[in-house]
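For practice. Any example?
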Amino acid sequence: MSICPKGKVSKSRRDKRRANWKIDMPNLIKCSKCGELMAPHRVCKACGSYNKKIIISDVADAQ
């Protein structure tokens, strides 16, 4: 047996199903230490800190 669709799916019905595929904007917050925009619950790429504690010291030395 092969795959056989039960009926034609119109362009409208197909596109309604695909309407939720859009990409959302990333949620960004300000870093509590330097004020740069960053993803929540991640180490700040600008200063290397998380929750006001320096996690990556290499980033802070490069600036």
